[in-house]
Amino acid sequence: MDYVLFGMQGSGKGTQGLILKKKFNLELFETGAVLRQLAEEKSPLGKKIKSIIQIGNLVPNEVVMETIENFMKHITQGKNVLFDGIPRKKDQAESFNTLMKRLQRNFKGIYIEISENEAMKRLSSRKMCKVCKTVYMGSFEQNQCEKCGNELIKRSDDTPESIKMRIENYKKETLPVIENYRHEEKLITINGEQSVDKVTEEILNKLENF
């Protein structure tokens, strides 16, 4: 069984994704990271993605689907995948569903739900390592990265205006995708306004009974 991770910015889905990856020995498909990695390769797909990124365009949906299919071909047989960052829009979800069906892959959605106020609060206070880009929430009191020891800084795009715009785009584009999966009974909803351990516990409990 594969999994698709959903959550508003600041929901902690990146943190939970890494926990689930380790817990279930999953392959992690994080859309942005995979596209950036491929763009550095000399493969035909990598060159295609690099040419699109270099001129400042968004990678089109059909290329993203080609990237997923390429990723799935190279994972160890019998291993399951955790998708983070896709599908984000209705048309992308339709393409994703079609591809997964063709590849004979079943999946469940995990939606970590938080309020807009909580998202604003978390995103406004979070910090990021200026070197390795690890993100820390406001409750993290140190000013040095635990992984590499470098300075933590505020992300340049974590302004109130930018945060509001990202949340509005999420509500407009991604929430309808989530609701469709809920309607199809392919989704569990998790209270994201708990401690990290409690969120993990709820995910595991609900997956076990899903």
Helix count equals 8
Instruction: Classify the beta-strand content into a percent band.
Output: 15-25%
Largest sheet strand order: 2-3-1-4-8
The secondary structure category is alpha/beta
Query: Would you list the SSEs in sequence order as H and E?
Result: EHEHHHEHEHEEEHEH
Low-confidence stretches: none
Helix content: 40-55%
The CATH architecture category equals 3-Layer(aba) Sandwich
| Rg result | 17 Å
Give me the count of strands.
8
Q: Mean pLDDT, as a whole number? A: 91
CATH class membership:
Alpha Beta
Domain module count: 1
**Shape category:** globular
Give your account of this protein's structure.
With 210 residues, the protein is an alpha/beta fold. It has one domain: 3-Layer(aba) Sandwich (Rossmann fold), CATH 3.40.50. The chain contains 8 helices and 8 strands. The chain has a 5-stranded parallel sheet with strand order 2-3-1-4-8, sandwiched between helices. Strand 5 and strand 6 form a beta hairpin. Helix 2 packs across helix 3, helix 4 packs parallel to helix 5 and helix 6 packs across helix 7. The radius of gyration is 17 Å and the shape is globular. The model has no long low-confidence stretch (mean pLDDT 91).
Per-chain topology:
Elements: E1 2-7, H1 13-24, E2 27-30, H2 31-39, H3 44-54, H4 61-73, E3 81-84, H5 90-102, E4 107-113, H6 116-125, E5 127-129, E6 135-136, E7 152-153, H7 160-183, E8 187-191, H8 196-208
Parallel strand pairs: 1-3, 1-4, 2-3, 4-8
Antiparallel strand pairs: 5-6, 5-7
Helix pairs in contact: 2-3, 4-5, 6-7
